[in-house]
Amino acid sequence: MEETLQTILSQFDGKQEEIIPILQKVQEAYTYLPEDSMNQIARFIRVPASRVFGVATFYAQFRFTPTGMRRRSWKKQRQFWDSKARERPTTWSTRSKRWPASDVVHWLPVRRSTKKCTGT
Fold first, then answer.
1. What is this structure's pTM?
2. Which domains does the chain have, with CATH numbers?
């Protein structure tokens, strides 16, 4: 863990403007921001640790707890829900002239009125 952080810090000059890029690189390496790493970053940049913690907590992109081993991407979730959308019925049942009962609540077609609302 120490060697990884040292190699990341060796890529930077130690300027205060580099706080965000350093935090991004550390998170990329560890998948989160460990507390001891942020303390070492503060020493490297020569700012108080509260400054580094303040920057890290301000931006939503930084995480402070490790992520799971398997991360589900939004792309896979989108593919899953798109496949479910293809399974919905698209025509009326010829036998009963209604939508299948299991899908009535979720897949009712929305009809839009062409009349204008008069407000009364």
1. 0.56
2. 2-58 (1.10.10)
